[in-house]
Amino acid sequence: xxxxxxxxxEIILDHYRSKKNRRRLDPADYHQExxxxxxxxxxxxxxxxxxxIISEVTYDGIGCSICTASANxxxxxxxxxxxxxxxxxxxxxxxxxxxxxxxxxxxxAADLEAMQGLRDYPVxxxxxxxxxxxxxxxxxxIQSDEKPQSLVDTERPG
Amino acid sequence: xxxxxxxxxEIILDHYRSKKNRRRLDPADYHQExxxxxxxxxxxxxxxxxxxIISEVTYDGIGCSICTASANxxxxxxxxxxxxxxxxxxxxxxxxxxxxxxxxxxxxAADLEAMQGLRDYPVxxxxxxxxxxxxxxxxxxIQSDEKPQSLVDTERPG
Amino acid sequence: xxxxxxxxxxxxxxxxxxxxxxxxxxxxKPLAYLDSGATSLKPQxxxxxxxxxxxxxxxxxxxxxxxxxxxATVRFDEARDSVRQFINAGxxxxxxxxxxxxxxxxIIAFGxxxxxxxxxxxxxxxxxxHHANLVPWQQVAAATGAKLLFVxxxxxxxxSPDAVESVVTERTRVMAVTGMSNVxxxxxxxxxxxxxxxxxxxxxVVDGAQLVSHHPVxxxxxxxxxxTFSAHKMCGPxxxxxxxxxxxxxxxxxxxxxxxxxxxxxxxxxxxxxxxPDKFESGTPNISGVIGFGAAxxxxxxxxxxxxxxxxxxxxxxxxxxxxxxxxxxxxGPVTEQGVAGGVSEPGGILSFNLGDLHPHDVGAVLxxxxxxxxxxxxxxxxxxQFLGVPGTVRASFYLYNTFEEIDRLVDALNKTLEVFS
Amino acid sequence: xxxxxxxxxxxxxxxxxxxxxxxxxxxxKPLAYLDSGATSLKPQxxxxxxxxxxxxxxxxxxxxxxxxxxxATVRFDEARDSVRQFINAGxxxxxxxxxxxxxxxxIIAFGxxxxxxxxxxxxxxxxxxHHANLVPWQQVAAATGAKLLFVxxxxxxxxSPDAVESVVTERTRVMAVTGMSNVxxxxxxxxxxxxxxxxxxxxxVVDGAQLVSHHPVxxxxxxxxxxTFSAHKMCGPxxxxxxxxxxxxxxxxxxxxxxxxxxxxxxxxxxxxxxxPDKFESGTPNISGVIGFGAAxxxxxxxxxxxxxxxxxxxxxxxxxxxxxxxxxxxxGPVTEQGVAGGVSEPGGILSFNLGDLHPHDVGAVLxxxxxxxxxxxxxxxxxxQFLGVPGTVRASFYLYNTFEEIDRLVDALNKTLEVFS
Lengths: 158, 158, 422, 422
Ligand SMILES: Cc1ncc(COP(=O)(O)O)c(C=O)c1O
Ligand SMILES: Cc1ncc(COP(=O)(O)O)c(C=O)c1O
Hints:
C: Aspartate Aminotransferase, domain 2, 16 helices
């Protein structure tokens, strides 16, 4: 087992290198910042919706390759899909990493499966989850129609 | 080695049983209370002086056999002697217990030698020292002509 | 209840082999350790857990991207989950690791009490308390203008629900009560008190330093808001304690310590803090100790707290009877009144007594010479001593590894003490 | 100064055999532990001291009249004396055992600062500080109305006496400065700052968490009023720290924790407290940890802190040169400017850097795969990160047991990292 092969698969590195979705949307319908206090990673998500469909989604911020690759995968997976779809992918992604469930992603989110190797590196799981926990907050806000909090501490994911 | 023989020598037990000097002097020229906070022992010394001579000395309070025997020995050793004599016995007693010096007491204080066995029971040394540290405070007050403090915590003897 | 022999299903022989120190001697006599109320002995599994950390992991938790740090973090988190399960807390954020029960109590008093109490508010407590559950509240009362009220005890030192009711007013904000007296072993009726606290809208703080070590505790069914305890009294290492707190209360509180590992962001002028439990765990924790604590509660669970409590009750019944036979002995607390099987439903395995007018130190010293370890003095419970009207007591306390034979040796040593001082 | 081989008199081979973990592997590679700045490895003598307590003593200290408790007490007191000697404190009352350096800092900030500071008073500190020596002072400033002032740093993060003078006013009451940055290893000119503090009539607080572990420290000749440090960073156990304080200051302070073992008398309404050090050590301390701490400082003294500091300087010089050769590396702090032998008289053995625009986590993770343990992130020093203009760094830190070869393995692993992310 070599960590470089294990963790830094080409597919993850590609998403990490891609800067396609790394930009701010202004104005955005939803904007949320999330941090992992213990490593200082800090990601902002920007979402535009159009009749229940995520028409645009981008991210910005600072994070390791796992963190930013995961944010990029998020953007790729969700754009053009519904809020419900986003919730489903989110819960499957958490299921895979936290509860060790078999990955089962819709096609547009298939790259997320590459993150499965993280299960062997438990302290890095929070890197991959940062963008998703930030999304979670947005989805809650959409449902409850509340004003978003300024910051989510996502370090102890449930 | 048996602790009962070692520590509770007949001579110590005799001083412990003797209630001769266990009473309050009112009025006294000097009165001082000393406590060992961690065991709760609490001894009051009462001294009358007459031209530099300790004419009467008594104690009262609560303490184990070592503590009260030591207080009783103190009274027996000092009565009728000078303040200077008291200071000398005090420093020799501390020397024996704290710095493991050879005992070298004047005749009237010879019983104190029986306390030498305490060196093998370091946590009990403070029991034997309580009355003497209380005396120490009185001697300081005599020298400095100051009002005595109400209470001395003698637990960490120097 | 007062059978002469240890229940046949209780694995006392196996248990004794698991504590390395039990094979040793003290003053040349086999060790009879009857001072678990002060701190317990450590089983080999706990020693091994610490040893494994010290010699095979060694790294700091959090923020480490390498395997050893990861392993330390995982084991640390596992320990928290073990402790959470042990007391059935709802989630891991409700279990704070501290350095001892005393720190846990201070976190409550200063983090909650000092922040939320106002002049005229009332704190109810008892004379049974260990100083750890009393002195911090005295300080908070002095700082905030709140008042300390004491539940009147019955003549043998018990707390009745009626007595509690008698001091409750509409100003009652906190009720801080021990789960088990470390002097008499008496266990107040916590469920009743919890119900009273709930009706009064008061926060219910239980000092569990003795309770949690010796009896099954389920914080949810007990209904307490805070619970404090120490690893070293429950087969774990020194230097680790725990604080259970209801999540919403913890979230509203200020921490006692500020520094690393508890912040989200630090600027030059100010900082923002993490959520529970991290907010309360600043600085490098006692990693080996916490890992050992986890092993300790799993060890206790393996034997079963019901079984341990039952074993201690048998030991206590035997001790009450045998020590009671020694001439001149005065036993303190409820156990004297009707015997163990009588009025006291769940007495803890602690026996406090004095021998004639002998000072407890003298008794303890002769016992020491016989290889019997007991505690003497005021047991960090001076108000209880004032209540009992004595400067101190001799205290024998029992735990999962003690035997009837050790109690018999205590009795022999007490008789010897009478001889020495005759 | 930058010799290629370890000084021939430094017993590196013997030292390495004394640390059991050094024979193990990580991710299948021999462990190269370069994270002693976070916590150090433990030598066998420290493990043995803890083990001896856990399996042969086990009793609580103080108030015990039996041999095991006596032995625990004697060893506990011995440890205090060892630590006292190690930093040359005047007497044992000036050495307080805490749970970590963070608790030590909080005791100062809340016990002294919060009690004695008033609106308009000034606290001087630096952006070099670990959160443990900053966040408590932020809190105290907010609570008292005192002001926090920062000494301007030079471009590579150094503190000059003139810069310190420039922020001193007649309202300066406290100067809280790290003895050694845990990010860059930089050591401020403490003696000069002590002199300035003395002239200003300010209390001089030194965060010694890194300094004391790596360099000889004599509190009397240094002239500091308070010094904080942690056992776990200096070959000792986790869960123990120390606070040195000048006796008169400690005596004037309020404790942070109230409870058992720190009181003279407790009544129902109020209590009186013991003198130092007991006043600050409420509750059952980390007995095994303190005993292990004593063994650790005696172990370090046996090798000699001068020798250890010298060894680390050689390692640092080698690391600065070799890591500096890796393409795209940016090294932070004074070591980059003139090399180690240049302007910095006594640099601590810490090297912080980044590799191109790679996130420190990614670098650390590849290093982990090569058996090389380093820390990555903001190192509990966010203001320092803001000063450096980076979100985090990769930090390699050295200690008495490290070798040139381990640094070479770090360099190889960095080159491998470049390949992975190329
Ligand atoms: C300079 C400095 N100060 C304070 C601390 C805090 O030490 P601890 O976590 O042991 O409380 C550290 C350790 O991270 C440090 O490096
Ligand atoms: C009832 C009770 N509360 C609190 C404590 C304090 O525990 P620690 O000394 O571990 O902080 C003790 C232990 O002596 C105790 O018996």
